[in-house]
Design goal:
The chain has 278 residues and is α/β, with parallel strands linked by helices. The protein has eleven helices and eight strands. It has three domains: 83 residues, Tetrapyrrole methylase, N-terminal domain (Cobalt-precorrin-4 Transmethylase, domain 1, 3-Layer(aba) Sandwich), CATH 3.40.1010.10; 111 residues, Methyltransferase, Cobalt-precorrin-4 Transmethylase, Domain 2, CATH 3.30.950; 55 residues, no CATH class. The strands form two sheets. The protein has a five-stranded mixed sheet with strand order 4-5-8-6-7. Helix 2 links the parallel strand 1 and strand 2. Helix 3 crosses helix 4, helix 9 runs antiparallel to helix 10 and helix 9 packs across helix 11. It is globular and about 65 Å long.
């Protein structure tokens, strides 16, 4: 189940119900989870389940579930299994024939993307890049030609090096959105060209502190191509809506251009409404 990134009120009512009813709570860092549990009056003591003991703990989780106990799995913040422990336990529980129920909530990926204002229509979540410079350079180089936005997590002691590599290998004109300390007291979100990012960090040492989501928008050429494709689809739709019902027109244009049918249908309905309004 997902837990707040920072602001302790960013937890769902369902998540509180699940935690209150859980017989066992497994957490990436019990000290972090203890603060959240105490804040909401939950007295169940969390047990540690982190990257170094996840495989061993999976057996404990399975045994508890088979005994009829209700088990909740949380990480320090956000959603388990997304650059955090959890995936191995989930797989082990599923392999044991036991149910796994998602309790959705905060995610640093979704939170950052919601305020990024991307031109790209698609994104690739990369997570943490390799710590070693050569491996990091190789991975970024493999991503450079992709026509999508790229989303990274990064630690404070590596963020300057990572941003420098991104600027060098992806190009200085691509837009970078730095989302720092999301939902916390010193939250900071800024958009700037990759080529200006190092100077931005250098201007204030506080900007290197905290946890980071780095969002790099799609290459300008890919954005321009996407805009052209949308314009072409819209032109076809405008022509066909004169002869076909909105649903049929959207279906035909989607097959011709590859544009999303649902979006075309909404546009077709709006065009029909505008045409019928005096």
């Amino acid at each position: 189940m997902a837990t707040p990134l920072g602001h302790l009120r960013d937890i769902t009512l369902r998540a509180l119900d699940v935690l209150a009813a859980a017989d066992d709570i497994y957490a990436e860092d019990t000290r972090v989870s203890a603060v959240l549990l105490a804040r909401h009056g939950i007295t169940t003591r969390a047990r540690a389940l982190h990257a170094h003991n996840e495989v061993a703990r999976a057996a404990d989780v399975i045994a508890a579930l088979r005994a009829g106990r209700r088990v909740a799995l949380v990480t320090d913040a956000g959603t388990p299994g997304i650059s955090d422990p959890g995936a191995r336990v989930v797989q082990a529980v599923r392999d044991a024939g036991l149910p796994v129920v998602p309790v959705p909530g905060p995610s640093a990926v979704a939170t950052a993307l919601s305020v990024a204002g991307l031109a790209a229509e698609r994104f690739l979540f990369v997570g943490f890049l390799p710590a070693k410079a050569a491996a990091r350079e190789t991975e970024i180089g493999a991503l450079a030609a992709l026509p999508w936005a790229l989303v990274f997590y990064e630690a404070p002691h590596r963020v300057r090096a990572t941003v420098a590599d991104l600027a060098r290998l992806l190009g200085p004109t691509r837009v970078l959105v730095v989302a720092r300390e999301l939902t916390k007291a010193f939250e900071q979100i800024v958009a700037l060209p990759l080529g200006d990012a190092d100077a931005w960090f250098a201007a204030d040492p506080h900007r290197e502190r905290g946890e980071f989501v780095l969002v790099v928008d799609a290459p300008p050429a890919a954005t321009a191509a996407s805009d052209a494709a949308r314009a072409e689809a819209s032109a076809w739709l405008a022509a066909l809506i004169e002869e076909l019902p909105p649903a049929r027109a959207a279906h035909v244009v989607a097959r011709m251009t590859g544009a999303p049918r649902d979006a075309l249908y909404r546009e077709a309905m709006q065009r029909k409404k505008d045409r019928e309004t005096p």
